[in-house]
Each structure stands twice: as C-alpha cells, then as structure tokens.
Specification:
444 residues, single chain
C-alpha cells in the first residue's frame, strides 16, 4: 500500500525526473529551466555606469582646475602699492633754519684810556645797576700824561658829543614813529570792530605799533649809552689834566642796569684804550636772529608768524620784526659759499614760556611764508615729473590712471593741487617702474 502511494507521488511530481528502468508514458528530454530575477544585475550595471560618470566628472574638474590655475598664473597680477587720499586740510609753507637767541640791547664796557685794570670781581649773571662800579683802572706814568693820549681823549670827547646828538635825533624820530603807530593801531581796532577791514590789516597795524615801541626802547638805550660814553670821555680827559697820587684810579661805572653777560677781561693787566672789559644787558629782553639764504629772504615779510623750538623747552611763538637789508657770505658745511641775510624775530609768547632761554642759545625757527586753511593736498612722494609738468597715478576701481596735475605751494610733507584732482580720490604713493597707465593695483 505504501509502496504504491510512493510511486504515485513520484509520478505525480512534474519536476521529478523519470528514473530509468521505471515504467511510464513520459518520454525522456532536457530539463525545464525556471526564469531568473534580472533586478540585481540591472542595479549592479547602473552602479557601474554611475561610478564611471563620477570618475569622468572628477577628472574633468581636476583638468579644469589645473587649466584655471595655469591661466591664472599666466595672467598679470595686481601690483601692491601704497595709496593716499586727496584731502582738504590746513597747509603751511615754512622756511626752517637754525638761529640764535641774543639780548636785544647789550653794551660792552671798554677801557676809556690806557692803564692797569684791577681784577674784575663780577661774574656772569651778577646784577648791576646804572652807575655801579664794574672796573677800576690804575694810571701809568708817563703814558697817561703824553700829548698823544690827550689828543686821543679830546677826539673821543668830540666823537661822544656827536654820537649823543645823533642818538637824540634818533630818539625823537622813534618817539614820533611810536605816536603815529599807536594812532594807526587804534584806528585799525575801531575799523575792525565795525567790520570795515580784515583781521590781517589789524595785525599789521598792531605789528607796526610793537615794532615802533621796540625801536623807541632801543633808542632810549642808545641815548643812555651815548651819554655814558661822553661822560667817560670827559672823565678820561679830566684825568689826564690833573696830577695823580699813588692811590689814584679811574672807576668805570655800568652804563645801564641789567646783568653781566660775559666778563672779557678777568685778570689784572695793562689795557689799551677801547679794550673790552665785560658786557652788560637785560637777559629778559631777547630776540632771535636767523640767517637765511637770500633766495628765501625775499619771501619773508615783516610780521610773518614764526614757531621757535628745539631750544630745550616747548615751542614758542614769535613774529618777524625785520629783515636786514645787507647780506653776507658764509661757507656752508659742504664748502660752498652762500649769500645769507639776517632775519630778526621778536618773541610774542609770554615771558614765562621761555624764561629759561638765554643769550646765545641755539634755536630752530620755522618762518611761515604761506598758509591756507583748506588747501587741496597730496603727499609730495606721490608726484613725479611728466614732460614739462607734474603728474600722479590716480586709482579708480583698482586700476591706475596717469593724471597730469598743476601744483601750487609745497612743503616737505604735502603739495597743493590746483587742478587735476578732487578731494576723496586715491593716488599712488612712491610709484615704481611697474606702475603704468591702466595697470591693476591693490593696496598694501
């Protein structure tokens, strides 16, 4: 029973092969194949195709990157430059020279006649008053009694009388100039208060008043000195006309009140007439003398503002009082002969600000010859010669452009531009040979 059922199951199984030797009606033939699933294979093919395209794209990107780098390397690079901005700012043009402080009115006390001068006990800085004895001269016989000495003394008296008459005329003229200057200054103040004249006219009038006052004070000093010279000449002549005892001596008084600036004859000894003994002056009345080239002196006008520094203290202000009319020759440090002229500067700053400044001190003066409150300026280092004129490289959107410009005043830092540029534009500073018209630039 079980054997029959097994045979029936085998016979009924369509996929079971027919065993040889068994009975049955199905003929022998090739096995029947079942259809396969193609989806995994297609997915694999698609992944391979995508991988090939990704490789191609990456290769293309690498090739394009290398090509771009090569092209970029072959292209001209922007030149790195320093740039400055055209600006409106206050501008000054000055003449800068070394100068020297000196006492305005100084007097050198000299020996009125030949004799033996005693040792001078005064030291520089000591205060003396008008009439104080500053030196003593002991007579020598016979030189004090000879005819030639008497003749020289008489001539000196006549010379001193003429000098006093001359200083009297100068003092009268200075007094008249001071009166006129005061009147002009007062009239200028009234007109300025009403708005009828500019401030420059007022400053010129006040400058004239100060100059006239300084000349008047100087003339008074000269008058006192002339009187002193006449007195000393008469004393020397009278000293010759009388008999001298063993202890007789000639006392030399101070001509003016002030301080001893320098002792020129310290030791005792025989002196000739006119030998300098010491110098006296007022250290609080100082002026600055500056020698400048004659080509610069023609640009300086009386009343010009001056800044004085490098004397050991803070910068102080002054004004030009006078430009001397006569020049002199001086040898420069390079061995070149230069024609120079002295410029006299008065200190307008308060005395307290330069109280430590003394006679003979070195200073540096900056004399203003031109100034403007809103000048259009560029650095001097950005300007260069172009043909018969001047030019700069203006930068617009990273590109340099050659722009001809016209210049006005210049100092050591900036130059005034009259035409060619406008405020706010950028220019190249220190342009090199690599900078040309149309070259791309980038700021440093």
């Amino acid at each position: 029973m079980s054997t029959a059922m097994s045979r029936q199951a085998i016979t009924d199984d369509p996929d079971a092969p027919h065993a040889p030797g068994h009975g049955g009606s199905a003929p022998a033939g090739p096995p029947i194949e079942r259809p396969r699933d193609e989806r995994p294979r297609q997915r694999k093919l698609r992944r391979r195709a995508v991988g090939r395209w990704v490789k191609r794209i990456l290769l293309a990107i690498v090739v394009l990157g290398l090509g771009g780098a090569i092209v970029k390397g072959m292209l001209p690079k922007p030149v790195t430059v320093d740039m400055a901005t055209v600006a409106r700012e206050p501008m000054q043009v000055t003449i800068d020279e070394d100068g020297q402080a000196r006492v305005i009115d100084r007097y050198v006390v000299s020996a009125p006649l030949m004799g033996r001068v005693a040792r001078i006990e005064l030291d520089p800085g000591d205060e003396v008053r008008d009439g104080d004895v500053v030196a003593r001269i002991v007579p020598l016989d016979p030189p004090l009694l000879d005819d030639r000495t008497r003749s020289q003394s008489e001539s000196r008296v006549a010379q001193a009388q003429a000098a006093r008459a001359q200083t009297a005329a100068q003092m009268a003229r200075a007094r008249a100039s001071l009166s006129f200057a005061k009147t002009e200054a007062g009239r200028a103040r009234e007109l300025f208060a009403k708005g009828a004249i500019p401030q420059q006219k007022l400053e010129q009038a006040e400058m004239g008043e100060r100059t006239a006052k300084a000349d008047h004070d100087s003339s008074k000093f000269a008058s006192r000195v002339a009187s002193y010279e006449l007195e000393m000449a008469r004393a020397a002549l009278g000293h010759l006309d009388k008999k001298h005892g063993p202890g007789d001596q000639l006392e030399v008084p101070a001509p003016v009140s002030g301080r001893v600036l320098k002792v020129l004859q310290e030791s005792e000894g025989v002196v000739q007439p006119g030998t300098p003994l010491l110098s006296v002056g007022d250290p609080s009345a100082l002026e600055i003398v500056v020698d400048v080239l004659t080509s610069d002196a023609v640009k300086i006008t009386p009343g010009a503002r001056v800044a004085i520094d490098r004397w050991g203290g803070e910068s102080v202000e002054g004004r030009v009082r006078r430009v001397e009319p006569s020049a002199f020759t001086r040898l420069s440090a390079l061995g070149v002969q230069e024609q120079r002229v002295n410029v006299i500067i008065e200190l307008t700053a308060p005395r307290e600000s330069w109280a430590n400044l003394g006679d003979g001190y070195r200073v540096e003066a900056h004399i203003t010859i031109w100034e403007q409150a809103d000048a259009l300026t560029i650095p001097v280092s950005s300007v260069f010669r172009h043909g018969d004129g001047w030019a700069v490289y203006r930068v617009d959107d990273g590109v340099s452009h050659l722009i001809p410009v016209d210049l006005g005043q210049r100092n050591g830092r900036v130059a005034q531009v009259t035409t060619g540029l406008e405020a706010g534009q950028s220019v190249v500073v220190h342009p090199s040979d690599r900078i040309q018209d149309g070259v791309q630039v980038t700021p440093r």
